[in-house]
Amino acid sequence: MVLRETVCLRRLAGGNHSEEIRYGRFLGNEAVTVERVIEGWSDRTGLAVAGRHVLALQDTSEIKFATTPDNRRDLGKIKKGNCWGVLLHPMLALDAERGSCLGLVGGRVWTRSEEELPPHADRPLSEKESRRWIETAEAAKPVLAQASMVTFIADRESDFFVMWARVPDGPFHLQTRVMHDHALLSGTTLRRAVQEVAFCDEQVIELRERADRPARKARLCLRFGEATIKRPANLREADLPKGVTLRWVEVVETAAPEGVAPLHWLLLTTHAVNSPAQAWQIVAWYKQRWVIEQLFRTLKSQGLKIEDSQLQSAPRLEKLVAIAAKAAAIVMQLVQARDGRDDQPASLIFTAPEVDTLAALETRFKGKTRLQTNPHPRYSLAWAAWIIAKLGGWNGYASSKPPGPITFYNGLAYFRACADGWALRDVYMP
Ligand SMILES: [Mn+2]
């Protein structure tokens, strides 16, 4: 999937019909479970996180497939109930200092059932979809055990008391945006307490482009403080403390362009925040959440086009989504490796014969000038990415524009053809 940039079985099989059938049988095999595929998401992540402060991002993406009233492909309702598809909830590990992608950690892929559920508030957490935030974080702890520190980051849907009371623990921190106002032990509410504090700093921050807004520079005012959120009275989970003490950081955009909703984030964190510099750090870490959105885009329209899959039936689609999620994470690692900001091995993505093919192809670019020689350690992912970019037509000068995704995919397509040819030499040579 990474090298062919598709989830289409026919294209994955490269026109080999029996191979296409084998892919189909693999997905249809009941012994191949989505849970086991997800276990494989983290097989290299545990090592990659060792000794680092890791931002562990989690989020849910709704993956929509085309259906007709006569054929819903056994899928469940998503979005506002007007589409059918599966849900993907991954956790992705990033290096907190460098922002580099370290791989998937864990998560869930599931299809909603069609049966009516009792009202949300009447169900214990174990029967709510929101348990995925806690379960994914808990399952991540052993995978991330080698990290020096972990900050779990999620969007506002994960802002609920049980999460705050259960997940943070020692090196495991938690940070989210506030969903609803929280009652505080002091008798007031979080939002009211925030209003009492004066803004203490200002900064201009670069906001990335999103589907609903162009990129822009935003002037933000900042304030921060501490608050103890109170256990809700109607909570079904017993044995939780009366309150959890957290730090809050609020940033408000003062002069948003006309017609654009001003940025306003109220963040909660278990990290210490004693200075504006620390508060801006909290904002910067939260901003990195966009990387998981990038993962979803890589999986969908801007990459593997998972939603175009023609596979019938939800169980196969769930497995395909689980496999494609890992492929999308690897594509992101490869694209990031271009700039050599991290030191992961080429074996993260390429098999041993593929690494040999890369080494053979590299000789083509050697010996011209030093400036055009691969600057990265041999057999590192950055080394491989440099060769792929060259194959895609990049000129290789450090001073020129870094290769873009299109150059990359051209390079990958060319590499794929070379690697196939290289593999054939053993078959056809006497
Ligand atoms: Mn979300």
Number of domains: 2
Distance between the termini: 32 Å
Give the low-pLDDT segments. none
Radius of gyration: 24 Å
- The CATH topology of the largest domain corresponds to Transposase Inhibitor Protein From Tn5, Chain A, domain 1
Q: Tell me the number of strands.
A: 11
Let me know the average pLDDT: 90
In words, what does this structure look like?
With 430 residues, this protein is an alpha+beta fold. It is built from 13 helices and 11 strands. The protein has helices at 9-12, 17-28, 34-39, 45-48, 131-143, 161-166, 190-195, 276-287, 290-299, 314-337, 352-362, 381-391, 405-428, and strands at 53-58, 61-65, 76-78, 83-95, 101-110, 149-154, 172-177, 201-207, 216-230, 243-253, 264-269. A hairpin with an 8-residue loop joins strand 8 (201-207) and strand 9 (216-230). Helix 9 packs across helix 10 and helix 11 (352-362) packs across helix 13 (405-428). It is globular, with a radius of gyration of 24 Å. The chain starts with 8 loop residues before the first helix and ends with a helix. The relative contact order is 0.12. The model has no long low-confidence stretch (mean pLDDT 90).
Topology:
Elements: H1 9-12, H2 17-28, H3 34-39, H4 45-48, E1 53-58, E2 61-65, E3 76-78, E4 83-95, E5 101-110, H5 131-143, E6 149-154, H6 161-166, E7 172-177, H7 190-195, E8 201-207, E9 216-230, E10 243-253, E11 264-269, H8 276-287, H9 290-299, H10 314-337, H11 352-362, H12 381-391, H13 405-428
Parallel strand pairs: 1-6, 6-7
Antiparallel strand pairs: 1-4, 2-4, 3-4, 4-5, 7-11, 8-9, 9-10, 10-11
Helix pairs in contact: 9-10, 10-12, 11-13, 12-13
Bound molecules: manganese (II) ion.
Manganese (II) ion is lined by residues 59-60, 155, 157.
